[in-house]
Amino acid sequence: MSAFDELLAFQRQTEALSSVAERLGWDQETVMPRGATEQRAEEMAAMEAVLHERRTDPRLGEWLDRAEPEDAEDARIIELIARDHRRASRIPARLATELARQTSLAQGIWAEARAKDAPGDFLPVLNDILMLKREEASALADGGDLYDALLDDYEPGTTQAEIAALFDAMRPRLVALREDVLGAAFQPQPLTGHFPQETQLRLARTCATAFGYDWTRGRMDIAVHPFSSGRWQDSRITTRVVETDPFNCLYSTIHEVGHSSYEQGIDSDYAFTPLGRGVSMGAHESQSRIYENQLGRGRAFTGWLYQRMSDAFGGLSVPDADAFYATANRVTPGFIRTEADEVQYNLHIMLRFDLERDLIAGRLDVEDLVEAWNARFLRDFGVAVDRPANGVLQDVHWAVGLFGYFPTYALGNVYAGCLHAALRAAVPDLDEALARGEADPAVEWLRENMQRHGGLYAPRALIERATGTDVSEKPLLDYLEEKFSAIYRL
Amino acid sequence: MSAFDELLAFQRQTEALSSVAERLGWDQETVMPRGATEQRAEEMAAMEAVLHERRTDPRLGEWLDRAEPEDAEDARIIELIARDHRRASRIPARLATELARQTSLAQGIWAEARAKDAPGDFLPVLNDILMLKREEASALADGGDLYDALLDDYEPGTTQAEIAALFDAMRPRLVALREDVLGAAFQPQPLTGHFPQETQLRLARTCATAFGYDWTRGRMDIAVHPFSSGRWQDSRITTRVVETDPFNCLYSTIHEVGHSSYEQGIDSDYAFTPLGRGVSMGAHESQSRIYENQLGRGRAFTGWLYQRMSDAFGGLSVPDADAFYATANRVTPGFIRTEADEVQYNLHIMLRFDLERDLIAGRLDVEDLVEAWNARFLRDFGVAVDRPANGVLQDVHWAVGLFGYFPTYALGNVYAGCLHAALRAAVPDLDEALARGEADPAVEWLRENMQRHGGLYAPRALIERATGTDVSEKPLLDYLEEKFSAIYRL
């Protein structure tokens, strides 16, 4: 066997094991008995120990030195394995294992603290995790910036300076749009009523199918915090149900279908190689957001959805499809990121980005986090947080060690804005299909121009290749201003 | 760290990884998307490769040589790890990995072949697996008997000669009892009607709770072939539902609770050591069978169940609790092992035991298996198999490589007979509790005398310690003759 083949065979097993670890995470958040937390933490730690050992295996270094790529795919595989090897080799095995164990345990503690609205039960645990993450960041940064080292795990090649500049460019237009919208004379009506769980889930399945979700290679379950999980032949989605708000379930589902569709759409020849996964969290989020928002909350698709929901629930509190479109895009003051409308969503991200940079840099202590969150929220949103579950306890991310992850959501929105502009230009009659509840032309365009490539191109290069232009926040902001000016009759 | 502590720390991680592999097996049989078979086979193979590497790790040999036990528990831990290390070291890594991959793939192929009643789709795959298992048996046997080498994996210390002698002692009395029962003037009525799935599952949960199942450390799902899975804090059960036969669901559930109860009942100090699992398949089956049969199908518990089922289904086709008791223990000619009554069950096992010994010894070819099965079934049961799904395709075991496993079911029945006699002597008023739907006194006795010990004692020693007498088929046969003579008014 050539060095490259040795490398590929070894990596194949590592990819399979990492897929197992991901499946174990899915199990923990959907079906695991609540008394199994200690056992699961040990299991996660054991898997991480095995994965870390493989990623730091000295043979990798030898094979990487000797591997000779035959084409661009081979070269990219070598680049990605080398990157993974280099990063893993900087992290001591003890730290990797301990992080897996602590974050598995912390998930349950966070969920209980949130349910009891008791930040004091969670913050000490968060502090432990922050200390471990800072240790990890120091190891990874190798003298460089700590936050950049973490961010690089989720969005390779991006720095906090770039993100900060992007956010600075976005903020004024978003804030202005929000002010206009909240102050507009016309305000859409909320959707009121009781929407039974079973009906919501049935509709959610219909929506997932409309967006091309392949049920033979996936499934849908309920989770506290919807997520998607897995790759290739086994990419699962989760959703949640609030019986007073069917949009929560339906748009969570379409969002997660965007993620899973990306994984399902990757060239199957890439399975069990580093090319066989979405290339970054930002690229991933671009898919979930374009499915959910630009397509799912557009006038054409909501027209179809209005009819479906009216039939399923036996009438709706809004009079027609136009009113329904406005309702589905209603902008209101609110505490919760995952329930935020398109106008305000990125402002929620900016808050988290700044706070977590301060935490990682040591400028903010965990014990001051509640106060810092609440002060910042009041400043940014003009509303005082009423309780911790609506504030700092709302997201699971920090509990599971995801520092540097939040900005990829906003980046995903920016990418989605770019992709949407290109998609509309390429498929001018897309709305005709969407109005029939068929997202196929959009899914096909995204699959062909982006999804199938998996990890082959770096994130920004991938988007620029698909759109034919540089990545910029402008298409997203133009789209938002146009859409919401029309809805709010500004 | 002492050599023993090194050994323990290493084993702790191995146990956690083996628990992950078991969880992956659960996933495959309950929730996995049907299109994920190839991916899952790779994942299972990767986990097996890691486990095999750990079990054959040369450091184990060094630690085992130097480890100094401080007490009987330490000594048994060393014995069990050494045994595992010795067996694993005889199997080439390639073979272990290939077996994991092939048996994962074969499961789906078996299920489809069974559904289509097409043995030709499955037998070539079975032949591949048989060849791999024979190779494994040769490696393990080290010149000794092939079948004994496989049997030893499930029931350490037992030989096919012992099993054959036991079966020879059991067969005449079982056959005579069956003839008497099937020829009796009185025949219990079958239960007829339609029993909705949701109601069956609700009752199944009630029964599981009655038998002490700890829902905080387990859950129940639907599977084609009910099984239990996992240990300590995460021991799950599965069941199946046939809407014309509620006994199928309810007694499958109680049976699996027996298995899971054993795992849940093991001393939690043993978690992640080789003592933290049921000691053998026979010991395991003794628990599932005593829960299901001696307790669950006894007059006292069925009296309570009769009332519960009458309430839940709005009346039953049998007139009273006595008639219901006879119905729940009805003996009829039938093809399916898992649906067999207590009288005939072991005859189904004897058939499989003889056929699989012939397969492993090379005296029977897979291509002749259908014919051999059908001929033997006709001879043993006096009925011709009507279709392969009711014959050789009915069990998943051989598809997943479980040769040498079937006899442990019969051994479990023998153990259950011994335990039941001792339990009744120790808890004379047990029926009073069972008549109230409370199995607690029985579960407590079993937990104290058997379950909590996990792997501490060898299987036969464990049963003999709990019962105070030698293991013998006599208590089981006495119990069956007494019970069925009374029911059938012989």
UniProtKB/TrEMBL annotation, chains A, B:
<dbReference type="InterPro" id="IPR001333">
    <property type="entry name" value="Peptidase_M32_Taq"/>
</dbReference>
<comment type="similarity">
    <text>Belongs to the peptidase M32 family.</text>
</comment>
<dbReference type="GO" id="GO:0004180">
    <property type="term" value="F:carboxypeptidase activity"/>
</dbReference>
<protein>
    <recommendedName>
        <fullName>Metal-dependent carboxypeptidase</fullName>
        <ecNumber>3.4.17.19</ecNumber>
    </recommendedName>
</protein>
<keyword id="KW-0378">Hydrolase</keyword>
<keyword id="KW-0121">Carboxypeptidase</keyword>
<comment type="function">
    <text>Broad specificity carboxypetidase that releases amino acids sequentially from the C-terminus, including neutral, aromatic, polar and basic residues.</text>
</comment>
<keyword id="KW-0482">Metalloprotease</keyword>
<keyword id="KW-0479">Metal-binding</keyword>
<keyword id="KW-0645">Protease</keyword>
<dbReference type="Pfam" id="PF02074">
    <property type="entry name" value="Peptidase_M32"/>
</dbReference>
